[in-house]
Amino acid sequence: MFRKILIANRGEIACRIIETAHKLGIRCVAVYSEADANARHVNMADEAFLLGPAPSKDSYLKADKILQIAKAAGAEAIHPGYGFLSENADFAKACDAAGVVFIGPPVGAIEAMGSKSAAKDIMAKAGVPLVPGYHGDEQAPDFLAKEAEKIGYPLLLKAAYGGGGKGMRVVWQQSEFADALAGAKREAMAGFGNDKMLMERYLTKPRHVEIQVFADNHGHAVYLAERDCSIQRRHQKVIEEAPAPGFTEAQRQSMGEAAVKAAQAIDYRGAGTVEFLFDEDGSFYFMEMNTRLQVEHPVTEMITGQDLVKWQLLVASGQPLPLAQHEVSLHGHAIEVRVYAEDPDNDFLPATGKLTYLRQPEASRYVRVDSGVVENDEISPYYDPMIAKLIVWDEDRDRAISRMLRALDDYRIAGVTTNLSFLTSLVEHPAFVAAELDTNFIEHHQESLFAPATKENNQALVLAALYILETQKQPQSCSDAFSPWQFSHGWRLNEQPMQLLNLQHQEHSHQLQLQQLQDAVLVQLDGQQLRCQARLQGDELIATLGEHKTRVRISQYQDTISVFIRHHRYDFSYQTELLTETELSDDSGSLTAPMNGTIVAVLVEAGQQVKAGQTLVVMEAMKMEYSIKAPADATVKAVFYQAGELVQDGAELVELETEDA
Question: Which residues are in the Biotin carboxylation domain (predicted)?
């Protein structure tokens, strides 16, 4: 076994590899870009080396520099993870030439599967079923149009050297072909430097089912069951599960044996994934082979009880596979979702920003989180915006779905827009629960998955208000622990303290009136009054709203408060001020200071006309700012203080003359 390896990757997959390597006593070398200097994978590794600036081309794709670091650090092998250099045949060759083991398949296997069209030819010769289509070298548009007619519509145009949905078009009829071909070629050239296309019959309701295969250097090859990856957006996977719902043992064996044939046809070594389209009639067709570990490998690990990264390290170090085919057993059901920083309501636009609050579900035998980030990390624009993979396991699919829904409720993130709520909508959708799956699932259920935004959540508003009151009770600097000046919740001699609170949610503003009683708070919102109690325990608010008791997590970053209710997050910004008795009545001609404090700003002058609710003076007391507002339309007769001056409780600040007076 290796003593030291280098991980040529970042994020959750780098962390995942380090965890297994450390269990095996292997020291790990990390590499990082300037953007990842404090990343989790860097801190987990035994040592780490800077590659260069943030862009991938200047860091994680610098094959020569990565090899230099590996040699200098004494690493015997390089694990490429997935993405970046994981399927780069030139990098694998360079590793071989430098005497560093590439923890992946042989160069010939990578090259054979690097071209989708060449891969199809190899699979056809090996007897692996193929979707009817064209995979040849002739690329003249007129010729391709004729081949398209032979295949029949609808058909799928795919970049021969592509991936991730780029250079891919569905063509429904002949009149669309020319424009679709031109667009797909442009996208393929921009993304992969090669615009060669292949064409296939487009199956209207296929499932995406893939087989995990493994082969060693001793002539052994096995398949480790299947994964259903049908739930996709923009041809990229969102939910994966194993085993595939509704699959029979005969179907598993038939597809598994075809996948092993595919691996043996290219003299494969290590971990690979053979992807198939599974049609409604039970037939299946080879789609492509990924010559690396897949993002969704954890669901296979959960149902087989095997560590696939450990298998990779064993095979790469020359050892045989841990299990023969007849020893592979399956138990239970596993589901994985990919937690992304993205906006599902805005065409899944990637989001960037700081993870100001991050609480993951508690790990157990049922719940696993593979993540490369910690709280306060930045989701940058340079890399894939995946925050983590959330994986659950249970005895059957229904229980696994319940586990996933609870885990999604327990996943709380603030600071960036995420797809957590959308993932919940997917997992609890009746069609998903019924395993009515196909690769167009999201498009088919667009209306129910992207339902119009619900009205404002009054419960979240009240909880945010109670949280603010509780945080204001934090003790201030004062020698007398029993002094009312120890608290900033609006205590007033011989009065019930009253506060106005303005909460802003998206483009909507809400005003709440809060009256502090001896053992409760009266909250007025939209003409309704609710008696509440609350206490703050860390980031958990334990509240009673009328007759309803609830516990919610709440986070605050600067002036933004995030309330988490199930899988929803409600973000509020706020302003607060104390109401004096003069503000609560319209017949006073003066406004007085509600407490001892400092004048921050005077916004009016004598003779000025003011409107009801207009802020006249801003003062600061106990680290909080309070706005003194006009109780009615009036004329300012006199202003008695200037900015920077200290005032006593009850001091007259402004004299007003109302129209009634």
Answer: 1-447
